[in-house]
Amino acid sequence: MDASGVTSQGQNLGEPCRLRAPDHPVRLFEAIRDALCTDPKTRQAWAAVQVQAAQLGQARAAYWPKLDAALQFNRDHAASTVTGQPQFDSNVGSQFRTQALSLSWVLYDFGARTAAAHSAEQLLLASRYSLDDTLQTALLKTAKNYEAALAASAGLDAARDNARTAQESLDIAQARVQHGVAAISDALQAQTAYAQAAADETHAKGTWQTAIGALAIDMGLDPEAAPLQLQPLPADAGKSSVAIGSLHAFLDDAKRINPKINAARAQHLAALAHAKAVRDAGLPSLHFTWKYSRNTQPVTGLGLPSFPADAQDNFVGIELDIPLFDGFDQDWKMREAQAQAREQGQALIDARRQVMHGVWSGFEGYKTATADLGSTRTVLAVAQQSLAAAQKRYQLGVTSILEVLHAQQAVTGNPSASFSRAA
Hints:
This protein is an alpha+beta fold. The chain is built from ten helices and four strands. The radius of gyration is 40 Å and the shape is elongated. The two termini are 16 Å apart. GO terms for molecular function: efflux transmembrane transporter activity.
């Protein structure tokens, strides 16, 4: 089922997360909806997007002027003694306040702010692609666990059918032994086959419980609660092939729209922009500065009393900052940024290879599974007919128990039979 199918069937996608098991068979889109709603990794990825958005805001804040205000309340006491001239001694105490307002604005910095903002934009884009990848991963994981639970349920049904068939063969063998037309070894062999079928049923039940529990955890439910009931597959499931196009088209689409590749590409571009920002940070920058201050500190002179005063200062200037030497700190920062850019470049190549490998494996796996499904149905149908005929022949006494057990093994020994019964 694709995303459009999920949306079209899910009429209640806007509801809050449900933390209790549904009282009806769960459909695939419901399992995916609840998983996406409760998965902590998706919420973590969304929080990462918000973090990067805030960091982009910080980078863009560098274009704005910085305005600061300061307010001081002071108490001052000054005493001085002039040797031999006591008339010039002073002992003055005063209280005054100082107010200041300053503005600083970077007018030109050779592109450092632009590169930093571009790096932040690419990191935000990468986080959004990472969110898409996280959503797809959670969706795929839930879909696989849902299918595994369906297969386990079908396997349990098949194991129960096999156990019933083995019980029927055992009943036939015991009846023939009781009537003296078969050796006790027939009953013992049939009993052994039944014991093996019962053990297989127990194992299948454990596999089913494990798969159902994993799906419940994906949906944010308690796996120890009542087992989930799944919507059974439709009767015609798997009987019609789906045109999937060419492998070349899949590879081209993956290179273009796969979020893992796009996230790696954005991170690489962000690293390149960061390297440019680090380089430009070592270049001169031009600032506009303005400062206004006012204070009420009294004025006095040697041997004179203090007098109330109100002083004001207004300063406007252009400042050119030229970095000369910083202990090679800028050089090492530049080397670090360049190495990070190379690292992200290789990460992009690795992401492409991983996605290509996944597309190739999925494409070939689908073709193999589609071709195998029809053959499995044919083999299973023939094996079931052979088993029914062997049981009838053995009941009539025209064959041995070995033929029955062999036919029974042909039904139960097919590794794909369990899911074929459901599909």
